[in-house]
Give the backbone structure.
Amino acid sequence: MNDSIVLITGGGSGIGKSTALALAAEGATVLIADVNLDSAQSVADQVTEGGGTAAAYACDVSSHENLSQLFTSIDSHWGRLDGAVNNAGITGPIGPLESVDPEAISSLISVNLLSVLYCMQFEIDLMKRASKGAIVNTCSIWGLNGSANYVAYSASKHGVAGATKSAALETATDGIRINAVCPGFVRTPMNMQSGLSLDEDQAALRAREALHPMDRFGEPEEIAAGISFLLSEKASFITGHLLSVDGGFVVP
């Protein structure tokens, strides 16, 4: 990853933060975009304090206008983009579909799916200029399987899975590779806040851990390792792939 310039959306915490730190350690310049600028700047500061190069950007990925401004800034300041991790996402409404607020569904689709489509449009445009680049989208086990009470979330992630495969076919001869990681349950701030890992409820915690054959949740650093691999030249003949990093949760 030496001298590569890589954008990470949702880079201020969780998987995005771990990915930024991992890529910086491999020599990449990391551009950290997050709806919370303070969080993005904190990660960027951590990178620079470790001797790396980073920049922080405030961006609401659900806004096409915000994304347009972000990529205009990247193009103006850096002039190129070698890699991108479209990681920003939300869990959204949890519960039976008939009880879910339509506005909550719309917000979830905007953040989890539309932002990935819009980001790839901008990223592919930048990468085609150099005839090279790699994109990794953060999908989910619920982009491969279904789950009761997560219908909208699952729909958004199935969309990411399909978009990843289709965009990979469109760019296969342009020197651009597009893949996705599909994490299982991971110990991130978002998951803790959404109640996926209730540390105060050990029975619920153990039940969710037991869904994974490895009998535990994943760590953000483990997902970051999969992303780093897909971005690297070690994955030079891999495109359109959905990489499960889930402790065996989804076995074909």
Summary: DSSP finds eight helices and seven strands in the chain.
